[in-house]
Design brief:
The complex is a heterodimer of chains A (253) and B (320). Chain A is an all-alpha fold. Helices cover 77% and strands 0% of the residues of chain A. Chain A has twelve helices and no strands. Helix content of chain B is 34%, strand content 29%. In chain B, the strands form three sheets. In chain B, strands 6-7-8-3-9-10 form a six-stranded mixed sheet, sandwiched between helices. A four-stranded antiparallel sheet of chain B has the order 2-1-4-5. In chain B, strands 12-13-11-14 form a four-stranded antiparallel sheet. Chain B is globular and about 75 Å long. Classes of the chains: A mainly alpha (253), B alpha/beta (320). Chain A binds chain B through residues 10, 13, 16-17, 20-21, 23-24, 27-28, 88-90, 92-100, 252-253, and chain B through 52-56, 74-75, 77-78, 82, 84-86, 88-93, 97, 101-102, 104-107, 149.
Chain lengths: 253, 320
């Protein structure tokens, strides 16, 4: 019983510390110009580049815009904040605090998650008003937005583990992954319209499953079983969290 | 029974082929102020990073109040406050938010952290500026805030990495007063400093580390006694002239002469004979002796001898 309450006490302390880290990031980084550009303007221009002149239905375009907005906004905070904090040595404050590395990773990811979940409301609202796309499965939309945001926020934290003091170094590496993901996730071309090899490759992308859930919110059906989408995104979150934890430990040795 | 605040047990740290620390052993008793001195690259920062659980040792371990820093990292860290060498505060947060964030990381309850935060900001003369962003603070104010953040969890053990380096007089005095008060309250202080005189004044014991190995550990006075051969006579002449430097070197039993400001320091094993020589020298060259003092070996002399560093010309010594 004592071990159990001690365990609960420690878990509570860890979650509070993670939330404190997230609050700190929210206060400091949400309005930084490079985060606004990377998290909001970049996906908008990407969307315009693909959408203008194409005869695609709104039920494909709106979920696509929401998905890439989440992809870019969720993974934009930590690749900027962590290198800056390495440079100012404030990151050492987190590494030497009486909390586990998991909580540091979780706290950092939380700020990207909240940022992205809020930003996603912009294309969602705009899409529903401008394109008048009806929302048929709100639960799928909420699950899709929240899980995809958390997944890519954790991916951003994972990339930020690379021991550099320059945000540009991490952004360059991250874009090598983020940009191809747009093309292999069924965002602008439905998965079932891809060639057979493409349909295999999309299964390796976490964006595929998030996009599938978000599209289901507007189209009423998913390409994969919704449970597969949920489990796949959950698996990617776990993988990114564990990998981030390992890399932060390794690079601090 | 003696309680050890820190016990470093055979710590070795390698970075690739580079041996940064080699079999480092020492202990710090609860309530002690322990100085850690060494030239750049000697292993001071690596030692602190290992003792605070940021970096893992390649071999060996350390305990903080009997909690193993490798196996019980979180429990060990709860006992300590850390003031890093750089004033690692968040420039875009106010002093108050910086302090509250540090308290939240250490799970200090809200009511306690708000009371403690006010006390600390008042103690460090920052209460009036609590809502200002730290970006506009001076170097000294940032340093004081960093120290306040290190104390917000009421630690039993405080790591201070270069607490007063390059600070203004006001900040320096405040920080030294606080360290003095902490030691009176029984807080254990582990201090690294470039300022050897500061270590001499503050520390109960000091360790000197060089090339990743502990060269000596003892109280400042006992360390000085180990090199009684490095006594000196300090003399000032009127009129002052740099020409005295070379002439004084020729006096019997003088092993070295350093110019230190308007004074000359003559290193010798026999101060009495040198005093006679200096008096004769003043008569011969028709200069007046303004002051003459015999000085025992300083902690800096011990440091120089143990680390093998050499004094630079014009009396400025290479200590870091």
């Amino acid at each position: 019983m004592t071990d159990f309450s001690e365990g609960c006490g420690q878990l509570c302390r860890e979650l509070k510390a993670a939330w404190a880290i997230a609050k700190k990031d929210i206060r400091i980084y949400y309005l930084k110009p490079n985060i606004i550009v990377s998290g909001m303007l970049f996906p908008l221009f990407m969307f315009l580049a693909f959408a203008i002149g194409r005869d695609a239905p709104p039920t494909l375009l709106v979920p696509g815009l929401i998905a890439i907005t989440i992809l870019f906004s969720a993974s934009s905070i930590e690749p900027v904040s962590i290198p800056i904090e390495r440079r100012t040595k404030t990151f050492d404050r987190l590494l030497s605090a009486p909390v586990s590395l998991h909580s540091v990773v979780l706290g950092e990811s939380l700020s990207g998650f909240l940022y992205s979940a809020c930003i996603a409301l912009v294309p969602l609202t705009a899409g529903m008003i401008i394109f008048q796309t009806p929302l048929v499965q709100p639960a799928a939309l909420i699950a899709g937005i929240l899980l995809t945001a958390f997944c890519f926020a954790t991916m951003g934290t994972l990339f930020a583990a690379y021991p550099t003091e320059s945000p540009g170094d991490i952004m360059s590496m991250l874009n090598l992954v983020r940009l191809p993901l747009i093309f292999v996730s069924g965002v602008f071309i439905p998965v079932n319209a891809l060639p057979p090899i493409g349909q295999v490759v999309v299964m390796l992308s976490p964006l595929t499953y998030g996009n599938d859930l978000i599209r289901a919110a507007f189209e009423g059906s998913t390409h994969f079983n919704p449970l597969v989408d949920l489990v796949a995104i959950g698996g990617f979150i776990l993988l990114f969290q564990l990998a981030a934890n390992h890399l932060y430990r390794k690079f601090n040795e | 029974m003696t309680v050890h605040a820190i016990e470093a047990i055979a710590i070795t740290k390698k970075f690739g082929d580079l041996l940064a620390l080699s079999d480092v052993n020492f202990s710090v008793i609860e309530g002690e102020t322990f100085g850690f001195l060494g030239p750049n690259g000697a292993g001071k920062t690596t030692t602190i990073r290992i003792l605070t659980g940021i970096t893992m040792p390649t071999a060996g371990t350390a305990t903080i109040f009997e909690k193993d820093i490798v196996k019980e990292t979180i429990a060990a860290r709860r006992q300590m406050g850390i003031v890093h060498e750089t004033s690692n505060v968040y420039d875009d947060l106010s002093a108050w938010h910086n302090l509250m964030f540090a308290a939240e990381l250490y799970n200090v309850p809200r009511s306690v952290r708000e009371r403690r935060g006010k006390e600390l900001l008042e103690l460090f003369g920052l209460w009036e500026r609590k809502d200002d962003r730290v970006r506009v603070f001076s170097k000294g104010m940032k340093r004081r805030l960093t120290l306040a953040m290190g104390l917000v969890n009421d630690p039993r053990l405080l790591f201070l990495d270069e607490p007063t380096s390059g600070l203004d007089v006001q900040s320096n005095l405040i920080i030294r007063d606080v360290i003095h008060d902490l030691t009176e309250q029984g807080v254990t202080v582990f201090l690294t400093t470039h300022n050897i005189e500061e270590a001499n004044l503050i520390c109960d014991r000091v360790a000197i580390i060089n090339q990743g190995q502990i060269a000596a550990i003892d109280s400042p006075e006992r360390l000085k006694k180990t090199i009684q051969s490095v006594q000196s006579v300090e003399v000032a002449f009127d009129p002052p002239s740099p020409d005295h430097l070379n002439r004084l070197r020729a006096l019997p039993l003088v092993s070295e002469v350093r110019k230190e400001g308007d004074k000359f320091r003559l290193i010798t094993e026999d101060p009495a004979t040198v005093i006679e020589g200096v008096t004769a020298y003043a008569r011969e060259h028709q200069v007046r002796i303004i002051s003459m003092t015999t000085i025992g070996p300083s902690l800096e002399d011990v440091f120089i001898k143990l680390t093998g560093l050499v004094p630079r010309v014009k009396g400025v010594k290479v200590i870091d």
